[in-house]
Each structure stands twice: as structure tokens, then as C-alpha cells.
Q: What sequence folds into this?
């Protein structure tokens, strides 16, 4: 109990204490204590509002080969697609009508969408939707590229660090990918004035309490505006096909820990959490999450953005997801709002 109480008092722990705390995750009393404090803090900072982001998965081509991911380049079974600029803008239009005021452009690291093309798309969205936030989630780029996107009108950037432990990073990614490069990108993005999102999967192969303690220490140091975490879910075409899924209770526990560590953080109840447990997102909100990210991509492409097996909402129209999520959010006493949902410092 000590580490939990100290976290509540001081909003931080040493690496040893984080590791000790994580080992207490299956104690229902500790979980309840942290969840209660996490919800109290989120209500103090954000009231009962839940922010929503319209996720546009605009390409599943990827030059990377992350071992856990269904759209890794060496998966020949992935049916590849790219949305046209017109299709992307149509998703925004549809989303705007449904009340979305943040668009998240997420894709694999697709060389077709070079800086010029991305700048063009960001400019058009910026011009068409001056009251909306634009979030990019397109992987590792140079400082100069990030600068160009920022000047074109991008406000936020999501780039999960995946694991802050070097040895663990090596188990999840091929040699050419480096944790140091990933971290540098996150710091570059912060320097450029983006609202930055880091994060990791819970229960990825070979993750331990100790590697998770590394993640928490790193998050406290980076001090991002957003943190995305969700359970690892195996994809049948990857080398991790036979690995077990990440634990939902541990994910929920970590959501509470992150909310307490970073009281103002924007913290989504992720699609992976909703996939691993039918009530995962509701439980996430009850553990300190304050964001949901429904899918705005064209229904015809949704199944193709296949990062992990059994992903939810791949058959639903955007309007259905919006309605469904509104009801889900209300079922646990929160309200889905139509707002950019910026970080409150
Ligand atoms: N299970 C859960 N999450 C995954 N991601 C990629 N593959 C999986 C998987 N098999 C997550 C990564 C990535 C984000 C877009 O999706 O953390 O950053
Ligand atoms: Fe998509 Fe419920 S959120 S159908």
C-alpha cells in the first residue's frame, strides 16, 4: 500500500517503487484506491467531460516491421490501401457534421505520403476547419519535417514510445529501429510546440514490472500532454500470433497510475482496451481516462487497418460509433462533448 499512498501524495515514485507498485496491480484494494484518486483528479481538471477524436486511418502501407503489428511490411497477407486526399477530406466533413473537432490522421510509415503531400493535406484541413485540432500519427520523421507539418497547421502528434527499455525495444522491433531515435522524435515534437502523445502496449511479449517502471519513469520525464496505452493483442500473421493478450486489469491500473502522475494528461480509453473487454472503454473512464477515439475511416477500409485481431467497430458507420460511444460514456456518468479538447495546463 505504501507505494500507492506515496504516489497519491507526491505524484511520482522512484523506479524501484514503480516496479513495486506494478506488482500490486492484482490487489483489488490498491486498484480501487488508485482508481478513486484518478477519477477525482480527472474531475478536478476536466469535470465530467470526455473528449472525442475522429480517427482517420488513411494508409496501411508501412516501411517498418514492428514484430507485433499486423500491417508490418513483411506481412504479405495485409491488403494494402491508401485514402485519396478527397477521401480524407470527406472523412473530415462527415466527422465535423457528427460533432468532431479533432481529427487524427494516423497511418503506417508510408513513403507515398511524403512531406509535400502531408503538408498539402494538413493545409487543406486547416483551411476548411479552422476551429478543429489536427493531430498527426505518422511515425518517426526529421525535425525539419515535423516543423513543416507544424507550420502547415498540425497541433498535436501521437508517437507511442512502445517501451522505454532498450533490451525490450529490441525484442519488439528489428535492428534498424532505435529507442533513442523514437525518444528524440518525441523531444523534437515538444520543442516545436506540439501537444505530444507517447505511450505503450500493456502486456507486450517480454514486458515485465521492471520494463513498465522504465515506461513510467520515462513518461514522468517527458511530461507529454497525451498518453495512449492499451493491451497488446496478438495478430495472427505476426511472430507473436501465439502470445497471450495483455491484461485488462493491469491496463486499467496503469491508466490510474498515469492519471495520478500526470494530472492534466489527455488519456484515451483505447480501441484495444474495448477490443480486449467489451466494457473496457467504460472501465477505462472509471480509471481516469478522459478521451475516446472512434473511427472515422471509410467502412470499406476499416478491416484493412488491421493492427491486431478482432478489432472492434470495423463494421460500423461513423455515426453509429458516435451514438454508441455517447451512450457508453453516459452509462458511467460522463458526457461526450463536441470540443477540440485541448490540454489544460
Ligand atoms: N496490439 C495492440 N496494440 C498494437 N499496436 C500495434 N500493434 C498492436 C497490437 N498487436 C499499437 C502500437 C501503435 C499503435 C498505433 O497501435 O502501440 O503505436
Ligand atoms: Fe463503434 Fe460502439 S464505438 S460501435
A:
Amino acid at each position: 500500500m505504501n507505494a500507492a499512498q506515496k504516489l497519491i501524495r507526491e505524484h511520482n515514485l522512484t523506479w524501484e517503487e514503480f516496479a513495486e507498485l506494478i506488482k500490486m496491480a492484482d490487489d483489488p484494494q490498491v486498484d480501487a484506491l488508485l482508481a478513486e484518486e484518478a477519477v477525482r483528479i480527472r474531475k478536478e481538471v476536466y469535470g465530467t467531460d470526455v473528449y472525442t477524436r475522429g480517427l482517420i486511418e488513411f494508409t496501411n502501407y508501412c516501411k517498418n516491421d514492428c514484430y507485433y503489428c499486423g500491417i508490418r511490411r513483411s506481412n504479405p497477407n495485409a491488403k494494402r490501401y491508401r485514402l485519396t486526399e478527397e477521401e480524407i477530406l470527406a472523412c473530415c466533413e462527415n466527422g465535423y457534421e457528427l460533432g468532431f473537432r479533432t481529427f487524427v490522421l494516423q497511418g503506417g510509415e508510408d513513403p507515398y505520403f511524403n512531406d509535400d503531400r502531408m503538408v498539402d493535406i494538413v493545409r487543406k484541413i486547416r483551411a476548411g476547419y479552422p476551429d478543429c485540432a489536427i493531430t498527426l500519427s505518422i511515425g518517426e520523421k526529421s525535425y525539419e519535417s515535423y516543423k513543416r507539418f507544424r507550420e502547415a497547421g498540425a497541433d498535436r502528434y501521437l508517437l507511442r514510445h512502445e517501451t522505454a527499455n532498450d533490451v525490450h525495444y529490441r525484442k519488439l522491433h528489428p535492428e534498424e529501429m532505435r529507442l533513442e531515435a523514437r525518444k528524440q522524435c518525441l523531444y523534437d515534437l515538444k520543442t516545436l510546440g506540439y501537444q505530444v502523445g507517447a505511450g505503450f502496449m500493456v502486456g507486450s511479449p517480454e514486458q515485465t514490472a521492471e520494463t513498465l517502471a522504465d515506461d513510467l519513469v520515462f513518461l514522468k520525464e517527458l511530461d507529454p500532454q497525451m498518453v495512449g496505452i492499451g493491451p497488446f493483442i496478438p495478430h495472427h500473421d505476426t511472430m507473436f500470433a501465439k502470445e497471450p493478450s495483455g491484461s485488462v486489469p493491469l491496463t486499467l491500473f496503469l491508466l490510474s497510475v498515469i492519471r495520478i502522475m500526470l494530472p492534466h494528461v489527455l488519456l484515451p480509453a483505447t480501441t484495444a482496451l474495448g477490443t480486449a473487454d467489451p466494457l473496457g472503454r467504460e472501465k477505462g473512464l472509471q480509471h481516469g481516462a478522459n478521451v475516446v477515439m472512434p473511427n472515422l475511416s471509410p467502412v470499406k477500409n476499416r478491416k484493412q487497418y488491421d493492427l491486431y485481431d478482432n478489432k472492434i467497430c470495423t463494421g460500423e458507420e461513423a455515426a453509429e460509433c458516435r451514438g454508441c460511444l455517447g451512450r457508453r460514456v453516459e452509462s458511467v456518468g460522463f458526457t461526450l462533448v463536441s470540443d477540440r479538447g485541448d490540454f489544460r495546463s
Q: What stands out?
A: Residues 89 and 124 are 8 Å apart (CA to CA). The mean pLDDT is 97. DSSP finds 14 helices and nine strands in the chain. Strands lie at 49-52, 54-59, 102-107, 133-137, 156-158, 195-202, 226-231, 291-292, 335-337.
